[in-house]
Prior knowledge:
Layout: H1 5-13, E1 17-19, H2 30-35, E2 41-43, E3 64-66, E4 87-89, E5 110-112, E6 133-135, E7 156-158, E8 179-181, E9 200-202, E10 211-213, H3 214-225, E11 255-258, E12 269-272, E13 279-281, H4 291-303, E14 304-310, E15 316-322, H5 337-345, E16 349-350, E17 359-360, E18 363-371, E19 378-384, H6 387-396, E20 404-406
Parallel strand pairs: 1-2, 2-3, 3-4, 4-5, 5-6, 6-7, 7-8, 8-9, 10-19, 13-18
Antiparallel strand pairs: 11-12, 11-20, 14-15, 16-17, 18-19
Amino acid sequence: xxxxxxxxxxxxxxxxxxxxxxxxxAELPEVIRLHGAHxxxxxxxxxxxxxxxxxxxxxxxxxxxxxxxxxIEQLPAQFGEMSQLMVLDLSANNLQxxxxxxxxxxxxxxxxxxxxxxxxxxxxxxxxxxxxxxxLSGNQxxxxxxxxxxxxxxxxxxxxKNQLRELPNRLTLAPELVVISVCSNRLTYLPLNGFLSNPxxxxxxxxxxxxxxxxxxxxxxxxxxxxxxxxxxxxxxxxCFKTHYDTNVLSTNIKLYxxxxxxxxxxxxxxxxxxxxxxxxxxxxxxxxxxxxxxxxKVYAERYKHTLDILKNNCVTVLYEPLLKNTKLDLTLSxxxxxxxxxxxxxxxxxxxxxxxxxxxxxxxxxxxxxxPTIWCTITIALxxxxxCAIEFAHSSATNTRDWYRIN
Length: 408
């Protein structure tokens, strides 16, 4: 039976919250346009909508719009004019592209894009300065853009069940992050630096993730040992820290062959380093850094105070703050675009020698150990800015360093 238009108009007129879920709607009824200017929340879950009309922008008072479980393939450009939107749920639709107009939703706090066919995010979403929750699970995203880490109010990031091979380095600088969930992806490494906000990071089911940085491991252990979250049956991450890595994807990233045959993991393994690292050294290599790396460190240290303190009781403190009011770099040469990106995205790590605190970008001395092999057999990696810092850290932390060499 077709819905009675008079009854629909009466319902729209007398409600601020409109619940029209499971109604079989193939298009948005015109009655909402005619009588719904006052509406604040609209629920249209599990209908048959394939698109939205341009006139939806006339609903100036809508703050919450729920479109879960439709068949929407695209959104009109006028959608970005819904300036009062705070909650937008587009999960379980047929979206392949996210329109740039969503970046104009300046009041948006919660954006749900789960279970679509999205492969990338438009740079315009980086303008969502009030966004607190971003949900991207169940898509086809290979890489999250670095600007995600610059969203000033972002607290929760969910990107489970995608095709992610890495996480943005800039996430380590995000000031408000509480939760990062990236389970069931294809991650080969996590950021090597400590996280400023010390978030809860869930990364189960990344079978090619076979090591972790020393600072991040200590942060996770600190959370485990906290009286509020202590778990006697704590498992770092299920389905991770196996000894194999993804051989099906070509990568120019540095790979290290780690000798672990004398440990319970029983055979050697290969780890892949983040793409920011272009040159690595063993502790015994007495060489100096390139001028490129030294320049990056100097420019960064003049603009930011960034420290990483790792105490023996698993307590990790990260401090990051601009030292200059205007930290933008005036770079005119195209060759310096890479320099700008490296500085903006933050260092690969801070030197783990607590007496040093030098930022590290593209070149480092690497110390590799195995954390608590009776439990997890977790390979850990620590980055130092020089040979002297590497020697001092190795002695002070009583590490049993593993032999390694590059294979590419």
